[in-house]
Amino acid sequence: MSSSCLLAGRNEVVIEEREQGIQEIHNQIGEINKIFKDLAVLVKDQGVMIEDIGTHIDNSRAETAQGRSQLAQASNTHKDQNSSLLDVGKARTSVWNVFIDRKSINEYVT
Predict the structure, then answer these.
(1) Element (H, E) at 27
(2) Digits of tens for pLDDT over the chain (110 positions)?
(3) Which UniProt keywords apply (predicted)?
(4) CA 12 – CA 4 distance, rounded (Å)
């Protein structure tokens, strides 16, 4: 009987060791599960950030195109205004020349 008691005692030790091992594995699986849940939250948050970055890039692209268009319009308007001012200057010079020519003619005639 003593050998069967010894065997039974040894079996109980082995069973307890196995139970402890199983419990450790169970705890580790729980920790891994928590890590995966935390990782899922991080991935989800980063996905939102990436979508925001994409939206900002699209908005910047559209605003840049609009700015280029406005600069082109301003440049054309500036060129037109300079051209108009040049035309006004030419007209003034022409009128002044006519005035001087008339004055010279009147002085010459009299």
Answers:
(1) helix 2-109
(2) 566 677 667 888 889 999 999 999 999 999 999 999 999 999 988 888 888 888 888 888 888 888 888 888 877 776 666 566 556 666 666 656 655 655 555 555 55
(3) Protein transport, Transport
(4) 12
